[in-house]
Design a protein that fits this description.
homodimer; 505 residues; Immunoglobulin-like; 3 domains; eight-stranded parallel beta sheet; 9 helices; 31% strand; globular
Chain lengths: 505, 505
């Protein structure tokens, strides 16, 4: 008897027809039945005469399956779903409106990073990326299915998503870079996928899963010289169905419909809504869904959007709007692009580790989540983490990991900004979480950002409070005694400090 | 024959009646006549039987005067106005809508500071303040006529503005501080000024003038335990007329109607407008006039307001609105409070020298001006520059002086934000100034703030450009060659850098 763990990936594989175009000419669907669920999915052609269908069970126990269609004969069988193994908490869900938890109720505090094109890099760079991910700095990775054409990204990817041949890239350089280039040198069959390309993506998804990292998959993006961003609606839809059929059964998948959707000038609102409809209909697991802006935010009130995936709209005030955007959209706020730690020429990629860490804390203290990226000039190899992965150079990753540790100690599921009048600095656990978990009122983080107070006074009419001084940059937590009534906590007069107060008994 | 230099202060002094209340019972006015102007001013009672009238001539040549009124006999005479001596450029005026120049057309780039209560401190502190001012960091000082009651400000001032006795201050402390205290222990005659108090202010005005510093006089303010903020309309008006009669003839005076006018809860809009009317009617020299907010901005479109004197309304984005506020009000933008360098507990007084310097540059690059203040905890003496003056401790003053040096090299009268699309970083001379001064287009400062580019590319289709790299923190200007067409300027990948481009023939 075959077995698979709960929230694991069960795959049916069967030979089928190869005449004509197996990607479009035949049907292939599969149904998986257990005591508590019946799930129907699209199968897909994986090349070399093989059709597959994938399934992620949500319950333990006995299941049967049947794969059928015009691709070939009907395949049936059964399997047993066992308990999840350690580290498998299931897919992510929104909890208490503004936060996330795995399906087994384990809280998840998002600390993401971005390596847009890491799936398309040579093995040596890929290995370096995994070494950095092993250090546990991040628990979400944003990356693209399609290859990337942009400054620092003129090399061809290791594989292409379609059968065909790419335009000549030998004349490309920073000097001649433009979005509006002649792409007529490409020769693709947009009805025939290259399964090897998608297997590369799947390897990445699994490598992330093994490290407890969510795969925030960017399905479409505007950085393109191959015509992948300007396919017809029919071609787009074929692509979306293929992507969903292949990736949905991986529990750590998030769907990012696009990066900078508003730079995909050939797409209209109805296109994005149509992709979303395909996704809602064909992803039976309801993985998290978002869509990321360059300038104008998408309307994050749309019901299919599970969380607001944001890029800053202003150079100076951005994550500081987190609490306002929570109110506006009533959803988790995830800042996926808030300028990267680095030293490139562009303002979106040259802030300090201190400033990026501050932005992470500001987002977190207001009940949202921030994302990392790194863009240091690499004159030798032109390898920048933001796009390729490779080695990290910055100072923020360690601090982001430290913030995650602090967040993981939150009673309940997450923080929200405090309501003290004139007090911009207090974050307290989200009220709802709080009551739900019966932790009792009594957990506050007072974060001072670029302020440098030498002390702060507190008034706590009720109970005794344990105080700790947190140096968010030096990553230290220092006991500052137990207090009651009005009391003063001394601070070092440095930037990036916080005071944590926890009510005792 | 008496002489006075142009824009100097000419004073008539004469004995008069002392019966009753000389501050209110008698009239005293004076008229000064020259070939090009006839100026009528209010005289004032200076105590000890002496009445005075003051005049600031705007032209060279022969003048006659006559002081008369019920105070005593008529006094007449004549004097000669000579050319201004070195360093005397006259009072300040608004030029080219957004900037300032002295009346002799010398440009003035405002780099202000604030020592609210320096006029009311003991001699030793006063001396220390002057020593700091001698270093040439600042060219404007904001300070109050009335003494100050606030945290760190519980000592009585050296003098009070009225005859009478103050409430007991022995029980005052940070612990018991409140705005809503019992002030019944005061006993003042609001119709009898204490001339000594005003002479202290005048000494300060002169000391500033001697150092090339404008005296931004705060006539009213809310930090009060003596009842000076809640006098009757009649008492207020008497005070305003006395202040104008005494101070208007000092060429370096600016009128700040109030600090944080919106915290003076007993005053209404019509009160502020009435004070402004008194000022416009009785200050014959039209010194600069502003009114400073705590939360809500005053309506700076009011015609009597010469420049917008602002306190930030947001913790994160403030001076970055300079160009928008220029457009909104069509007047110079002067940020008089944008958080101080220091380490006190409050967010308005604990930013770093780097951050305050950045705010100065941001304001300047967008065509406005910023103000300094310093609030370091002083456990021994509780002397904080922001209020008392005394010794400076911070790192920003030197950098502010350096910025002033750079601004002084602007062709024409001042900068405005550049109009390059997507380019937030360019400041260019205000177009109008430019043409007016025929410097020819060709002066740009590209400022990168907290960005850390390792290089920047420039495209200059016309002419040759001299490039300099400015380190605004280290205060260095490094030659980066002469370039044309498309060229790259290398930068150190640090925060707070700028590139200056000047067209050369």
């Amino acid at each position: 008897m075959q077995t698979v763990e709960k929230w694991g990936r069960f795959e049916i594989s069967a030979p089928g027809k190869t005449e004509g175009n197996p990607f479009t000419d035949y049907t292939c669907t599969a149904t998986f039945k257990g005591k508590n669920e019946t799930v129907k999915v699209d199968g897909f052609y994986d090349g070399e005469g093989v059709y597959k269908a994938r399934f992620m069970p949500s319950f333990e126990g006995e299941y049967s399956y049947e794969m059928s269609g015009t691709f070939g004969g009907t395949v049936t069988g059964s399997f047993t779903v066992t308990a999840p193994t350690e580290g498998n908490h299931g897919p992510l869900r929104v909890v208490n409106q503004y936060h996330f938890a795995y399906e087994d109720t384990t809280p998840y505090y998002s600390v993401g990073t971005t390596c847009y094109a890491w799936a398309h890099q040579p093995e040596e760079i890929h290995r370096q990326t995994l070494e950095e991910l092993d250090k546990g700095y991040f628990n979400k990775m944003r990356f693209c299915v399609f290859p990337k054409h942009y400054l620092h990204n003129f090399r061809d990817p290791e594989t292409f998503p379609y059968e065909g041949t790419p335009m000549d890239n030998s004349g490309l350089s920073e000097e001649t870079f433009t979005y509006e280039m002649d792409i007529s040198g490409n020769n693709w069959d947009f009805t025939r996928f290259n399964p090897e390309h998608f297997r590369r993506i799947e390897r990445c998804i699994v490598e992330l899963q093994e490290r407890g990292i969510e795969a925030d998959i960017i399905v479409m993006h505007p950085y393109d010289r191959w015509g992948f961003k300007s396919m017809t609606a029919e071609q787009d839809d074929l692509y979306w169905r293929y992507v969903i059929a292949r990736f949905a059964a991986y529990r750590n998948v998030w769907w990012s419909l696009a990066n900078e959707y508003d730079l995909l000038f050939s797409k209209k609102l109805e296109d994005w809504e149509r992709y979303a409809k395909i996704l809602c209909e064909r992803d039976p697991y309801n993985h998290l869904r978002g869509i990321h802006n360059c300038m104008a935010f998408y309307n994050h009130s749309r019901p299919w959007i599970t969380h607001a995936s944001l890029q800053r709209q202003d150079l100076y005030r951005h994550v500081e709007y987190t609490d306002e955007y929570r109110t506006r959209w009533g959803k988790p706020i995830v800042w996926d692009e808030i300028s990267y730690e680095g030293n490139i020429d562009m303002g979106w990629g040259n802030i300090s580790g201190q400033e990026l860490t501050r932005r992470f804390w500001e987002a977190a203290m207001r009940g949202g989540y921030a994302g990392h990226g790194e863009t240091f000039v690499d004159e030798e190899n032109d390898i920048l983490w933001w796009s390729h992965g490779g080695p990290l150079h910055g100072e923020s990753p360690e601090r982001i990991r430290f913030l995650h540790r602090i967040l993981s100690e939150t009673p309940g599921y997450g923080l929200k900004r405090g309501s003290g009048s004139f007090d911009e600095t207090v974050a307290v656990p989200d009220g709802v979480d709080f009551l739900a978990f019966g932790g009792g009122a009594g957990y506050e983080i007072h974060y001072y950002g670029f302020g440098r107070p030498s002390f702060r006074d507190f008034i706590k009419p009720e109970g005794k409070w344990k105080a700790e001084v947190i140096d968010t940059w030096e990553m230290t937590i220092t006991d500052a005694g137990v207090h009651e009534g009005k009391f003063r906590i001394k601070l070092p007069g440095k930037e990036y400090m916080a005071v944590r107060l926890t009510k005792v008994d």
